[in-house]
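If you are new to this repository, start here. Below is one unmodified record pulled from the training split, so you can see the exact layout before writing a loader.
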Amino acid sequence: MKTTRITTWKDQNSLTAQSINSEFQNAVNMFNGHNDGRYTWDNFKAKGTTTNDSATAGNIGEYMEAKSIAATFSNFPTTNQYGDAASLTITAGDWDVDLVLTAYINTGTWSDALAGISTTSGNSDTGLQLGHNMQRGRWANTATVIEMLPITVSNFRVSLAASTVYYAKVRAIYSAGQPTYMYRFSARRIR
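And here is the target side for that same chain:
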């Protein structure tokens, strides 16, 4: 391994280049299995869990979700209108947000269904981008009957400086009856 020495810098606290190099060398030695006893891996590793509990709020791994009650379907909004299946208030930090939705024809005649993640509530597609934070199923005509359609928006990363409300958006285009859906909307802190 090549070691570079810094020999000219000195700050106001008298932390010399030699002491910086020494601390760096200690970290390298520890990484390589040679430790002088001052540090352990516990000083550096991310804390995990050894059981089936949840990460504490604010820690890496923190998880939140909103979901349909088992076997309970909700109605899509009026045809070609956006609605909110659920919302999550996500706190400052970096998060992976995802949405899993199953759309069901129910008694409808339909040709389109979508799900997405947005910070805009109500009948709005503001901020939705196909292939990024929105996915869509669309078929050529109503003669092609799709009974059940899974839609997944996977690991949409959000980086926040303050708490922000995110919405699980839904929309379907139909002409008779009313299609329904079930969902899981979740977020996990990654940093």
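Two things worth knowing about this chain: The first strand starts at residue 63 and ends at 67. The chain has two domains: 1-45, 63-189.
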